[in-house]
Design a protein that fits this description.
Number of domains: 2
Number of helices: 8
Shape: extended
Oligomer: single chain
Structural class: mainly alpha
Strand content: under 5%
Order of helices and strands: HHHHHHHH
Helix content: over 70%
Largest sheet: none
Length: 167
């Protein structure tokens, strides 16, 4: 479940790096950092990134040590905090951030945090399922250009099972 948090972080990270830098006030940053710490976002992202790194290493045993070392360096707590603070702090006002932080300490907020990885994973799966449906349509239209290899068939089966579990 933590992988989805890492995936969302990477999307946010690369999305931010492609656009113009956003400004945020010191108060916004303080409130965002409080939310990130309270919600354990950084810990979840670090754990997810480590799992992804281990998976990449096991799938690519000939991966050069320099690449492995560089991947380990990329899991930098300060960088993650800075990027996440930019994701949140440029969207919400200081007052909104305070209200979010207060909400996260309520029973409903705690439940929200507890189930957020599961909900995020399901929402990600819905997007992937729609993408797979579109790919299947393209495959029926032009199977040469859009071939359904074994890996793609396995993904379709996986997302179909997830879809069935969501209903």
């Amino acid at each position: 479940m933590q992988l989805s948090s890492a995936a969302l972080f990477l999307l946010c990270l690369f999305g931010l790096s492609m656009g113009a830098p956003q400004k945020q006030s010191p108060e916004q940053r303080t409130e965002v950092l409080g939310i990130l710490v309270d919600a354990k976002y950084v810990e979840n992202i670090e754990a997810g990134m480590k799992i992804q790194m281990e998976k990449a290493m096991s799938e690519n045993p000939s991966l050069p040590q320099k690449v492995v070392d560089d991947m380990k360096k990329a899991i930098d707590r300060k960088r993650i905090l800075d990027e996440l603070a930019a994701c949140w702090g440029t969207v919400y006002t200081v007052q909104e951030l305070r209200e979010i932080r207060k909400f996260l300490k309520t029973p409903a907020g705690k439940k929200f945090l507890q189930h957020q990885p599961e909900v995020t994973e399901r929402m990600t799966a819905v997007g992937a399922m729609v993408g797979m449906d579109m790919f299947q349509m393209l495959n029926k239209f032009d199977p040469v250009r859009y071939p359904m290899d074994e890996k793609t068939k396995a993904m379709v089966a996986r997302y179909s099972a997830i879809r069935d579990g969501l209903r």
